[in-house]
């Protein structure tokens, strides 16, 4: 059945229309609490994955947990779900809420003979395997950043709400013997921003449609008090991670205050000469994000607020260039984790980033009416272009060199970017690989990468995109939403390197949302210019027959559709808000 993504429609599969849920969510809700944009919806489980007893002795009426109720305990509730424990049987159950969410759990208990609070062990999981795991061990389940494995007490004829993490699955176990506990409900307390999806993307390829929406939802979940990298971990403002997230926010939600709030936090937390997050490239990403923000939204007063720090940072960066025009940046020299042990790739990527950063700096100085600084930073960019790193064979660094015009796009695409398909990809730098492929005009190839790489996560049960993904790990791996047999690998628990070993691996990481921004810009063809005052429509449908969607601009929502006609030409229809200059 064809999925339709409608502009300003927030609900696709939800039992009630109040409160509204993000359009990817399939679930029921009964109530909400609101503070400004941040709201809380209570969701019932979608299915029971596992229970320790199916005889009806220690677990009774389990199906009632899947029914949407009123959220209020009563003295005369009947036929409630029951946990009955003995010395030899302490029952447990595993619930699936259908989609990855951010928040906690509310458990309500009915009336029973004992008034002693009921002790329950809760285990949250982004995968079934994580929810069924113990802390530590080879598969590295942790309580770092957010608690996901702990014991609570549920009051007699009352409720308790606990937890603040990223999860889809919840395992609940009774810890003590001799319990007979009637449970009214076990609901997810889903915390998110109640904001409309102004941008949309729909085509004749449902896989691409789902990928676009999953990327949007991944970033949406990370738009908490600040713009986080992940909702389970690290729950921090990592500035480099923000760049793909900001491009997705520009595409889906428009100009949102969580971006400037997070950028300002990073600036204030890292006074010069500190590098942001201790990483020199992340300070450069801060500058590049500001350039993108101005390009899309044209907020001159906000750019002016950043001028002193920008100039200081650019001048600091200029001291890390040697006599051969080669970057010699100190601090943590980092692009992404897969390249972190390849110094030649790191240098190539940092050299390219230095070029892009000084070009962006020059452009921003022009906007700020600082011609002397514009000339200064353009000259530094030209110096840096004279050094062209060699020996790099990674897709990530090659992509940055293409974007900085240090490497020919066509040659890099054929020799590096498309080599071995989507092997040695990166969820973070995948966005820049796609950007470089677009520069080489390889739109069909880029669409294949999106379908195979990001689609590969969907095939494994993903409802948000992951911190890291190696396509070779698919072999003999079970999906994240099923119990894993002994003959299969656990895609979540059995793989990973660096910070994402085993279950510590974040399965909702905003830096992996790149296809959302890329599809809207390059396939739907919406290219924002002149501080958001102008949009150039230049579609590249590749192997698609039609595509349509919307895009938030400073003047309102722009709607565009493209169809391949019988003669092979593209027929375009545009519905533009008043005041927006649209060119084709």
Automatic annotation (TrEMBL):
<dbReference type="Pfam" id="PF17389">
    <property type="entry name" value="Bac_rhamnosid6H"/>
</dbReference>
<protein>
    <submittedName>
        <fullName>Alpha-L-rhamnosidase</fullName>
    </submittedName>
</protein>
<feature type="domain" description="Alpha-L-rhamnosidase six-hairpin glycosidase">
    <location>
        <begin position="198"/>
        <end position="523"/>
    </location>
</feature>
<dbReference type="InterPro" id="IPR035398">
    <property type="entry name" value="Bac_rhamnosid_C"/>
</dbReference>
<dbReference type="InterPro" id="IPR012341">
    <property type="entry name" value="6hp_glycosidase-like_sf"/>
</dbReference>
<dbReference type="InterPro" id="IPR008928">
    <property type="entry name" value="6-hairpin_glycosidase_sf"/>
</dbReference>
<dbReference type="Pfam" id="PF17390">
    <property type="entry name" value="Bac_rhamnosid_C"/>
</dbReference>
<feature type="domain" description="Alpha-L-rhamnosidase C-terminal">
    <location>
        <begin position="533"/>
        <end position="579"/>
    </location>
</feature>
<dbReference type="InterPro" id="IPR035396">
    <property type="entry name" value="Bac_rhamnosid6H"/>
</dbReference>
<dbReference type="GO" id="GO:0005975">
    <property type="term" value="P:carbohydrate metabolic process"/>
</dbReference>
